[in-house]
């Protein structure tokens, strides 16, 4: 093939450092920790499950009574004589009739307790007995129908709580097992913190991590790990003592039996067994810089706000965390870390205050945190927040705050359609090097198909090329247990014994493993022109109104043509979805005008938390634009663009709809530009870009340790693209040697799965060429990383 253009790389001219650019974000949603990365196999080990965590939960969730032969017992949960004041509930087995044994079985996560033949498992329990109970307790891992795979015996010796341990070695492989504790005799047996861990955890650490999931994370070679959330951080009450408090790190360290139970805002129970010490340890183990995110005393979901005069406690939490991570043993918190087993510093360099916060109360509080941290730790890089959307009022407020406070980084979050990512590869081209840096703390295109991964790869070349402005970036969410899904898509999927990385995972892996240390200049010449991904037309088509679990009256509906002055009127519409919990869309008409205003009055007359919805540019449910006013918890005005059923938020600002109040809504559409106003005040101004697809997306970096020049090229188009590659400065007289890692040859809808976990995964080949310039064909729909060896 004749090359259609040329890419010239200057291998000698070092550009912007790439620093810690590509990393990961861990949040305990989708059972990412309990029932996931945290290797504990027992579900509800301390009998602390509670309806606060989930309406279906109770203190014996995950447990079943065992009565064998004529055995009879009652199982209750009590709190009269607790293990400690933070772990108050425990199980009481009251033996009525010993029969062939009575006791309790834990059903584990997913299909049960998974064990593998020949592998050992560490059992532990806190137990006590009453005076009449003296029998041994038989601990076993059994199949669903009672076949014993492993067993051990403990003798409970005291009426006071004592910890007992045993090692169980499995004789068979079974992923649907049960952990059983069975006894005979008479009297009462009390149990708490019933635990079973595989002996083989990641790096064999006690209270450790599931080796297969942790290894997949380690294999990414992330430069950093952001943790512990997400909404998990700021969704909660203000008292650290509350079960549903915001995420308070001090609750998560030390003896696991002393860590309080926590309501996870993703509607399940969080043991906190995977806590801050374990997070820091894991970061160290995988060579990732830790990036903890702390709550700022403000819960934007429930508008809980710490008064400024009480903010000191929260700021102290941040300062103490830095000391916990970095302080030496002479410091209060450094000595606590040392006692936990890590005298050396965890080398904390970054700290985030707040997670995708919106609203003035956060930004008012951020300034206090910022000043206090910088006063004590001037080197600490502090991350501010810019809300959950890629543009709009709150996003701008976050950036304003970051500039005013001189934050080091600003956390941006967005989940959008693949088309949005393709239209925004150049998003950071206009960002300045002397501004705070972007921390793209959460992003993903909606899906785990190869097409999503491809769009993300193209976008990531834009992140890398713009390292002058983008400091850190991580995909989200990271992990998902297939049986406990809160959020899709996710980078890695698992059940209780298998795990696989998605196509998105392998793109992330390519960019992390081959990040490089600094950019190198790359120049394109003679390349084909970019092409729109679909016909470029003004926003035309159907328009209508909606209600979402509420009742709304729309009136004075008009469509005005700004080119001709023509005005069309439409009948009033009253929609009622009160209590229905779903939405109703009433299409009003359609237009092929290029410059028009849709104006209408809207009044909410009853129902749930949603306000109004205006649809435009409508082709069908999967292809349209939408203006939501008072959406999600009645707090936003949002313009969405839906392409192929996948939505993107083009812009957002805060807006709350009052019941019974009539609002004047106007939506001006000019070509693909949108201006939305309420009662005459502009609330949204944006453009719905159709992506122009470049022949290739690329970036190039240098890895100092190897001297490798690393070229990343993404071809999103439906045909192969051949270009000449010239590596200037590599003239050595010897052939040029390159290692090529490539994703190609997949259908755009292809996905990895448990059955085909590496259907989509990079293949590696070696290349030797004479000279420093050669023609190379980048296959259609491909991601290529070419490491050209240093001379
Ligand atoms: O990544 C899932 C969620 O998305 C995070 O908890 C939150 O920060 C964002 O809204």
UniProtKB/TrEMBL annotation:
Enzyme class: hydrolase
EC number per UniProt: 3.2.1.55
One Pfam family this sequence matches: ASD1_dom
Record GO biological process: L-arabinose metabolic process
Domain of life the protein comes from: Bacteria
Catalytic activity reported: Hydrolysis of terminal non-reducing alpha-L-arabinofuranoside residues in alpha-L-arabinosides
Family named by the database record: Belongs to the glycosyl hydrolase 51 family.
Name of the protein in question: non-reducing end alpha-L-arabinofuranosidase
């Amino acid at each position: 093939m004749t090359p259609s253009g040329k890419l010239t790389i200057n291998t000698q001219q070092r550009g912007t450092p790439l620093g810690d650019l590509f990393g990961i974000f861990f949040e305990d949603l989708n059972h990412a920790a309990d029932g996931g990365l945290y290797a504990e196999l027992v579900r509800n080990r301390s009998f602390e499950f509670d309806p606060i965590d989930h309406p279906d939960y109770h203190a014996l969730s995950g447990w079943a009574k065992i009565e064998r032969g004529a055995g009879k017992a009652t199982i209750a949960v009590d709190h009269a004589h607790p293990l400690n004041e933070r772990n108050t509930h425990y199980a009481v087995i009251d033996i009525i009739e010993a029969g062939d044994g009575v006791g309790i079985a834990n059903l584990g996560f997913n299909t049960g307790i998974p064990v593998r033949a020949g592998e050992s498992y560490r059992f532990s329990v806190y137990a006590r007995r009453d005076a009449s109970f003296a029998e041994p307790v038989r601990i076993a891992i059994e199949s669903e129908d009672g076949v014993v795979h492993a067993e051990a015996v403990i003798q409970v010796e005291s009426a006071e709580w004592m910890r007992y341990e045993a090692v169980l070695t499995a004789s068979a492989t079974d992923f649907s097992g049960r952990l059983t504790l069975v006894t005979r005799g008479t009297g009462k047996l009390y149990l708490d913190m019933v635990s079973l861990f595989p002996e083989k955890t990641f790096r064999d650490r006690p209270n450790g991590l599931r080796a297969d999931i942790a290894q997949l994370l380690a294999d990414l070679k992330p430069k950093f790990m952001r943790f512990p959330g997400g909404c998990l951080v700021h969704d909660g009450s203000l008292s650290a003592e509350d079960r549903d408090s915001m995420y308070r790190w001090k609750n998560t360290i030390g003896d696991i039996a002393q860590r309080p139970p926590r309501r996870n805002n993703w509607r399940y129970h969080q043991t906190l067994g995977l806590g801050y010490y374990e997070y820091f340890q894991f970061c160290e183990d995988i060579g990732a810089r830790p990036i903890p995110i702390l709550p700022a005393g403000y819960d934007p979901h429930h508008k809980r706000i710490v008064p400024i005069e009480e903010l000191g406690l929260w700021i102290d939490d941040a300062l103490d965390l830095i000391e916990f991570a970095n302080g030496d043993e002479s410091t209060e918190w450094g000595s606590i870390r040392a006692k936990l087993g890590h005298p050396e510093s965890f080398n904390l360099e970054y700290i985030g205050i707040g997670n995708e916060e919106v609203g003035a109360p956060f930004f008012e509080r951020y300034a206090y945190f910022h000043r206090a941290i910088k006063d004590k730790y001037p080197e600490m890089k502090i991350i501010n927040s810019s809300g959950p959307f890629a543009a709009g009022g709150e996003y701008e407020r976050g950036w304003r705050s970051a500039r005013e406070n001189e934050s080091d980084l600003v956390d941006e979050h967005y989940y959008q359609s693949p088309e949005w990512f393709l239209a925004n590869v150049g998003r950071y081209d206009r960002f300045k090097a002397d501004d705070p840096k972007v921390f793209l703390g959460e992003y993903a295109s909606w899906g785990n198909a190869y097409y999503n991964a491809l769009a993300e790869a193209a976008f990531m070349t834009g992140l890398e090329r713009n390292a002058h402005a983008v400091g850190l970036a991580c995909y989200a969410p990271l992990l998902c247990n297939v049986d406990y899904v809160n959020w899709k898509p996710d980078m890695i999927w698992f059940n209780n014994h298998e795990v696989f990385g998605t196509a998105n995972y392998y793109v992330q892996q390519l960019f992390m493993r081959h990040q490089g240390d600094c950019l190198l200049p790359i120049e394109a010449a003679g390349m084909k022109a970019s092409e729109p991904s679909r016909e470029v037309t003004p926003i035309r088509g159907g328009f209508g109104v909606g209600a979402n679990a509420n009742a709304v009256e729309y009136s004075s509906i008009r469509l005005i043509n700004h080119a001709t002055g023509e005005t069309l009127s439409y009948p009033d519409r009253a929609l009622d979805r009160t209590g229905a919990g779903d939405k109703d869309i009433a299409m009003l008409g359609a237009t092929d005008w290029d410059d028009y205003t849709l104006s209408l009055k809207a009044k909410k007359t009853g129902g749930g938390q949603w306000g109004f919805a205006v649809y435009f540019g409508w082709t069908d449910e999967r292809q349209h634009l939408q203006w939501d006013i008072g959406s999600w918890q009645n707090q936003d005005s949002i313009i969405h663009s839906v392409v192929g059923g996948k939505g993107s938020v083009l812009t957002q600002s805060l807006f709350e709809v009052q019941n019974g109040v009539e609002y004047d809504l106007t939506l001006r559409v000019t070509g693909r530009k949108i201006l939305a106003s309420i009662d005459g005040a502009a609330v949204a101004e944006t453009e719905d870009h159709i992506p122009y697809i470049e022949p290739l997306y690329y970036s190039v970096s240098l890895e100092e340790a190897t001297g490798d020049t690393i070229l990343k090229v993404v071809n999103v188009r439906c045909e192969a693209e051949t270009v000449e590659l010239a590596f200037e400065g590599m003239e050595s007289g010897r052939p040029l040697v390159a290692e090529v890692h490539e994703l190609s040859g997949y259908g755009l809808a292809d996905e990895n799965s448990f059955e085909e976990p590496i259907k989509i995964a990079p293949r590696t080949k070696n290349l030797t060429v004479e000279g420093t310039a050669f023609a190379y064909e980048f296959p259609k729909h491909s991601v290529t990383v070419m490491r050209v060896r240093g001379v």
